[in-house]
Hints:
mainly alpha, 9 helices
Amino acid sequence: MRYRKIIVHLKRQDWLAAAIDLIIVIIGVVIALQLNDWNQEVLDSESEKQYLISLHDDLSSTALDIEIATRNTKQFYELQSNVLNILEGEDLSEDNQKAFELGLFTFGKMNVPKRYWSHYEEMTSSGMLRKLKSRELKRVIIKAYGAEKDFVDFQNLLSQSAAELFNHVNKHYSPELTLPMSWQDIKIHYHLQTLRTDDELIHRLRNLHAANVYNDLFIRQLESEVADAKEKIEEYLIHKYGHNVNASSTE
């Protein structure tokens, strides 16, 4: 209707009326665009808030798994140290035989915190991560999940070494068993002298034992990055939305 009026005014050469109607149309378009942008911003803000809350939950779950992995890594290192000491000549007594058997079984076991990537991947694919206005928040989130990826890559290398170890054991000691249960079938007293002279086996065990040190370093790095990302998400949610994620999680 307004466009028809403009055309009529132009035909009559009523320039003032045509200009007024044109200005009214432009103002209407601008207001409509601003309302649409505002509405989209509201929707994006709500999506951002929910994604960040979910991401914080994922990182909290990862933090709990990291605590378990840290304890297990320390325990594995001690048990494996006992195994190597016995293979290098220390007496195998009734007191430490059980620890020896358990220590053998821990070689090649991976202490990997469970991955919680679904919400991070959704944020990435939807473009929500890119839209975050806080560069610092975006940086720590990407860094936390980057550290987890590096950790997983390292664990994959350990898995290859463990597979080679188990193949060696199955080939020379109990080829009929399914990995990694072959350790449980080794008759300790019968095979101990054989194990002590198996240089390849001891070499592989030492490598996996030493890998626990690097495993612990990766876990601690991941722990630091996850804690940093959690803290920044908490600060951002409180500052922008007045939402205390820790308070809501305890209700």
